[in-house]
Amino acid sequence: MHPHFSVRLGCALVVLMALFASPASAQVTAFSTDVSAAIDSGLARLNLNGAYGDSNTANGCSSSAGNAAGLAALALLEKRANADQDAVSQGYSGATAADKLKLDEIICYIINSHTGAGFYAYRDGADLMALSVYLRTGGPNSAGALASLNAIFDRTMANQRTAANGYPNDGNQGYWCYNNGSCLDASTTQLVMAGLAAARSIYLSGPFADAGRLASLNNAATIARTAYASIPQQNPLTPTERGHGYNRGDTNSLQQTGSGLWVQLVGGADINTMGVQNYLEWIRHRYDYPDQDNANGGWSQSDYYWLWTAAKAFEFLETSGVAAAPGNLDTDDLGTLPPAAAPAVAGRLMHLDPSTVARPAVRGPGGAGYYASPSEPARWYFDFAYSLMTQQDAAGNFNAAGSWEYYSNQSYALLVLQRSVGGGCLDGDDDGVCNEDDNCVAVANPGQENRDGDALGDACDQQTANIKLNLASAPGVGTSGISNITVTGGGWPAVAIPAGDANIFISTVCMGGQPVATKSTAVTTILGTTKRATFKIPAGLAGNTYYVWLNGPAGGGYASTNCSRLLVIPAP
């Protein structure tokens, strides 16, 4: 039995709300239903523990979360609207009346208690995220939130380790320490960069656009990216992998290598940038969940910090609109390397199998195979989310083997389950529109022209580059007779495969119905038995949501054990 094959989209992943508004196209699975319940339970526990203050009292402006209030606020803002895999975050405008009262309370607390404080990286990075998402999604106190955001942003810029801030001729510039730029701390820098990624969405465009602050932000992000990409190798398992430790020069760890992956993406790198490939390779060689005990650099308290740091980066990569070049790694390559495979790492984990794991007892009865579904393939998100659910108790608490502080720990777990990027904005095509709002992520189209009113802008309707399907999000999108799809997975023979040897099947029924068959146009090896097959969507294929799978010559040699979804748009 071979691992599933995943189909990847490399042109544009957009919010397909108009196309997927009907109940028939909803992707609600047993797993997504349990994830939604786990999120609700975790948020309820935060509320019971006072994170959202006394939301029954107007203008109470209180929170027991203290410096983690920004993370707790973000977790409530990022709550998904329902259990659909493709559901969007509720933000402020989509929140219930009860949740709005909680948000009013904790945002008021942040504004009143943190705006005039001195710089503190962990707190300020979290507050930048919460305030940015609040502003973007219709939070009513826009004046107070914007003033607080600007004040926190300005002191953050004043405390980065740069020549302008008192660190001349320093080859290790770009970091933030706890209260200034005096150390080379990757942990604090990651939280600050998360805040800056969110603030970019405010300063880039819209009613709060600020060209001056945006320029400062982008410059700071570029300096930080350079620092992470330039770090020397440390006992590498291969000539190309590269990681990062708690401080620059410390023992490399999963959590801080995840930080470095994230920071480089916020600084403008993409999946094919050398530094991103170096860091992805380091993580792949030591892939671990729900903790990071086989590569924690001596910091065993950072389990959930590792999960969310990495999850943000993986989500960014999967929604960036940039396909991995032939021979490069992508997120689908995580969890596919057996521990004994070269380079051998004893603690390395492979993907969990949704068709064999049992339902966590806290979520109810359900034995092995409870989560089996064509819409729930093995992937990093299933690994992370399932592991978190197994560590949640009946009271809603997430109980990591190691953690620093309750409110941040609880929030990190929730943000992973919510697939949150903290409101982070990437503008991969430099057209002034964040990727998540851009109707054509891979091609600059500042006007967002869309003459046919479909999910893709005109610039992408004419796009012929490869597209990438993100299994953890909405279906991929391609145009019949135009778009090239790259199919990636493990379980192939460890030999060269001729270009046309993969049979591709497209049907409205997974591995059934009356599939349209076509041939691959190229098959490339990523590593060992992990390969990519490319095919063009057949001309004349009607617009619909399809399932895609494949097998080898005459059905032998290699075959999918699962399907992936693909939305086909008729050619203009």
Coarse morphology: globular
Please give the CATH class of the domain at 435-569. Answer: Mainly Beta
**Low-pLDDT runs:** 1-25, 462-474
CATH topology of the domain at 435-569: Immunoglobulin-like
- The average pLDDT score comes to 86
Specify the structural class: alpha+beta
Order of helices and strands: EHHHHHHHHHHHHHEEEEEEEEE
Give the biggest beta sheet. Answer: 5 strands, mixed
- The tally of helices reads 13
Structural overview:
This protein is α+β, with helices and mostly antiparallel strands and 572 residues long. The chain has a domain at 435-569: Immunoglobulin-like (Sandwich). Helices cover 32% and strands 9% of the residues. It has helices spanning 30-48, 69-77, 97-114, 121-136, 142-157, 186-204, 211-229, 254-266, 274-285, 303-318, 380-390, 406-417, 458-461, and strands at residues 5-8, 466-467, 476-479, 484-489, 503-507, 516-519, 522-527, 530-536, 544-551, 564-569. The strands form two sheets. Strands 1, 2, 4, 7 and 8 form a five-stranded mixed sheet that branches. Helix 2 packs antiparallel against helix 3 (97-114).
Layout of helices and strands:
Blueprint: E1 5-8, H1 30-48, H2 69-77, H3 97-114, H4 121-136, H5 142-157, H6 186-204, H7 211-229, H8 254-266, H9 274-285, H10 303-318, H11 380-390, H12 406-417, H13 458-461, E2 466-467, E3 476-479, E4 484-489, E5 503-507, E6 516-519, E7 522-527, E8 530-536, E9 544-551, E10 564-569
Parallel strand pairs: 2-4, 3-10
Antiparallel strand pairs: 1-4, 4-8, 5-6, 5-9, 7-8, 9-10
